[in-house]
Amino acid sequence: MFLHEFVTRLGRWYRRQRCSLLSLPARAGGRLNCTGARPVFMVPLSCGGSGQVIFGDRVIVGYDGGARLGTGEVRLQAATGVIIRVGARTHLSNNVQVLASAGVDIGADCLIGDAVLIMDADGHALAPELRRQSAGLSAVVTIEDNVWIGSRAIILKGVTLGAGCVVGAGSVVTRSVPPRTVVAGNPARPIRTL
Hints:
Low-confidence stretches: 18-27
Order of helices and strands: HEEEEEEEEEEEEEEEEEEEE
Strand order of the largest sheet: 2-5-8-11-14-17-19-20
Number of helices: 1
Mean pLDDT: 84
Distance between the termini: 41 Å
Largest sheet: 8 strands, mixed
CATH class: Mainly Beta
Radius of gyration: 17 Å
Structural class: alpha/beta
Helix content: 10-25%
CATH architecture: 3 Solenoid
CATH topology: UDP N-Acetylglucosamine Acyltransferase, domain 1
Number of strands: 20
């Protein structure tokens, strides 16, 4: 029993060290700024686009025990002049994607489940004649402190998730959520308050 626990812990330590040393410089392209203590990388991180990603103190990227698609890579992509901010002690689980055309601000102490998608733009215009010419509408996404977003949830443009709220797994959030509220479904609707 002792040997099995030792080998498990050694494997976790090695993955953290390998991801910290190899994936951060190789994939961030100099666009990742960290304030305070260095983040912990349990899966690779990819910072795409020409914008900027700012991590607060002790952000955790990935989860050893969670589901993974491929390597579990977390992808943060910010357009030119756009900033993605991730607050202190926030945990981004495996396969999280944040795509920013206007900006995404994630508060402190948030828990973001595996395969969550946060996007602040439509990606294209709705009108058929404009779809190939326009990127559509975009609006900043704000996730306040201590928010829990369940696995495979989708957060769309212009949404503000209030402090302490919970988003159920698989939900599609199209409207802002008040603080300390539990929402779920497609589209996400309030279930109860905390």
